[in-house]
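G., the chain you wanted modeled:
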Amino acid sequence: MKDRLQLDKKDLLTLFIFMDHMIKLESHYQQEFDQEIQNWEGGTMITYEDELKQEARKEGREEGRKEGLQEGKREGRQEGKIEITRNLIKLGASLDFIKKATGFSEKKVLEIKEKLEKE
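Predicted structure as C-alpha cells:
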C-alpha cells in the first residue's frame, strides 16, 4: 500500500486541513489536531479555503507574468520594425521596398518618415 500512494508534506497538510473542515472532533482531540497542523505550518494555521486562494493567486500571478512577457515581446518586435524602417529611410530605400521589408502600410512608413524628418 505504501508504494501506491506517495504524498509529500504539502499534500498531507492539504489533506489534514480538508479533514479538519469535514470532521468535527471532540474538543481535546480537536486541540491536538490543531496543534499538529500549527506545527506543520510553522505556527500559522491556514484554512483549506485559504490554501486554495493562495494557489489561485499564485496561478494568477504566473498567468499575468506570461501575458506581460508576451506583450513585451510584441512591443519589442514593433520597436525593432520601426528602427529598421528608420534606417531604411535614412539609406534612401524606396517606399515599396520598406513596405515589403517591414510589413508596414504606406501610411505607417510615411508617419515614421515624417517623425524622422522632424528630429
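Helices lie at 9-22, 27-40, 48-90, 95-102, 106-118.

Shout if anything looks off.
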